[in-house]
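Blackboard transcription, Thursday session:
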Amino acid sequence: MTGRTYPEEPVDSFPAPPETFTDGEGRTVTVEASGLADFEALVEMYEAFDPADRAQGIPPIQEAAIRDWLDALLSEDSVNVVAGHDGRLVGHAVLVPDDQDGYELAVFVLNEYQGAGIGTHLLEGLLGQGQREGVEKVWLTVERWNAPAITLYEKLGFERTDVESFELEMAVRLS
Amino acid sequence: MKVLLGMGGSPDGFDALDATVERARQAGDELTVAVLDTESDHAVDVVESRVQDRLDELGFGADIRRVSGHPGSSLVEIAESEAFDRIVLGGGQRSPLGKIDLGEVAEFVLLNADTTVTLIR
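(Written on the board underneath:)
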């Protein structure tokens, strides 16, 4: 494996969760740090996840596979934040450590909650929580056609680092 | 059917080898394994002997061939010049988050081969 490249300059600090805001559809949404305590609520959210919104094979579709996958995501070394509305989880963002001191990022928002700014708040909360926990380097891959996501990641300070694969790789330095 | 399996030594390649042998047995396919020099951590000699060992364990006879040069284009070239019916490749590695990363060879072959390509998951 070749090493990943990261921007030299760190981004400014992000506000750490919790945060309550009104989304673009007038719904009250709360973003907060998460972990194993949210395991069952996250299983429920991913069972409701639209398969058309999957990317590169995640989230898994079958409940047993979702549980295995969440076991890995909700480990102590990861950083998790969730978005809740009306007593259930509607979004989840996570940093999972790789084996080279970096963290891989992903964010998921239920279909009917997309396009209302929740992803932006989740990502800001996740990066803020990451900074609080001492995470320095974060990377992600995104499908090349997903222009809205790429624009959002760039607004948060991510830069394009690998432009030669199917998926675009982007990275940010948090501190 | 003449099947050409390309592998560079990563775990998904060995999974693909097992699946391809099983399928070849059922269908009576003629299998050629192309060991690719992917400039990764996997030395070609080592991969070649591991492939031979695995074929011996499975009790299946297949040609093993070392392929030098650009792995993707060499594989496409062999498949076309020797009239293979199908190219088989591993289905990619998983990232820490569980995302599938196809890898350079699969990307090149999928985009450039006229031969049918199977990815083994």
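Lecturer's comment: Chain B has a mean pLDDT of 94.
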